[in-house]
Amino acid sequence: MRTSGSPLARDAMAYVLAGGRGSRLAELTDNRAKPAVYFGGMSRIIDFALSNAINSGIRRIGVATQYKAHSLIRHMNRAWNFMRPERNESFDILPASQRISEMLWYEGTADAVFQNIDIIASYSPKYMVILAGDHIYKMDYELMLQEHVSSGADVTVGCLVVPKKEASGFGVMHVDEHDVITSFVEKPKDPPTIPGDPDNCLASMGIYVFDTEFLFEQLRRDAEDPDSKRDFGGDIIPYIVRHGKAQAHRFTNSCIRAAEEIEEYWRDVGTVDAYFDANLDLTDTVPKLNMYDRDWPIWTDTVVAAPAKFVHDEEGRRGEAISSLISQDCIVSGALARRSLLFTGVKMGSYSSVNEAVILPYCNIGRHARLSRVIIDSGVRIPEGLVVGEDPVLDGQRFRRTDNGVCLITKRMIERLEM
């Protein structure tokens, strides 16, 4: 594991905001929060933020949950139960528990921290690293902590360089020549550009570093403001920009890249198409995101299961996979997977084929099925002979089909077919 060994991370607590539904992922988040959605063959989306914290040397972690949190909490209990109090480590799962009022859930991202101030204070962290739990990236938070301290900022905001035409979906910063933030606007129609770079903007990653006591002061002040929406991007950060010092920290300065990775990789997999594309990125010969980087591993639940298995070797009935990720407990029986991800426990019947498919755990693909550009939710049994991806009109009538021609298939959709 690559860590800098600096004491800053050891004096920090990572606080992951993982309560959002992610409604643009449609049926994928009907029964789970967005951070709990599967990704990359074995992981969940939240594993990236948590792994970044561990790999950066942070040993105090809290995760705030809210929307349909059962599968997320179950995953964290299984995958992240290795923290040990005797080593000054902690891992707290913090559902909205009406600690402030019996009538209120978390009202916003800032409130999700405010309601747990007493728990945070019990660990006495010097710094707080506030993280979104729903993005795919690798980043060393230690380097961001170092910039926060050296700049003397009240808050340091992680940011990405994005084209101006795409920036309206983000919180956007205007900065001076030293990357001090002079204005911060949520989802502006005309976003401010980077000085000297009129085509690009600095967009917030939803990552913030504070001195803990200063953060507590701001959360208490905000909680008393009747006009606040209790949100970091909408309330806390703009207030500090106006009344204090806010520093922009560029992702390029702390992103983690393996030797063969040619770009800084960050993805908001918040739509069905974006989720599909990010998963398929991993099937490239030289992927944009290297999941095999042992220096910066993505930790997740270790499944005790048999290895993947490929059986039958005759013309038209050969178990094979090309440019694909095949997880444990999969059986490809006389079938073909091409540029696809098969998550744990997927079974493919003879003469079936999948092309550009993201197949979530414990699905069963029936014989002679032919599927292209699909996402199949966990536990779905695909009927024998089903064809998807060849007739756009029919696909749109039976499944959720995106503008990019990706079909999302769920149990309920298959049940309707069989009625």
From TrEMBL:
Species this protein is from: Novosphingobium clariflavum
EC number: 2.7.7.27
This protein's name: Glucose-1-phosphate adenylyltransferase
Domain Nucleotidyl transferase, chain residue ranges per copy: 15-284
Ranges for domain Glucose-1-phosphate adenylyltransferase/Bifunctional protein GlmU-like C-terminal hexapeptide: 306-409
Marked site: Could play a key role in the communication between the regulatory and the substrate sites: 66, 105
Subunit structure: Homotetramer.
UniProt: alpha-D-glucose 1-phosphate binding residues: 106, 171, 186-187, 204
Family of the protein in this entry: Belongs to the bacterial/plant glucose-1-phosphate adenylyltransferase family.
One MF annotation (Gene Ontology) recorded for this entry: glucose-1-phosphate adenylyltransferase activity
Pathway: Glycan biosynthesis; glycogen biosynthesis
Record field: transmembrane: none
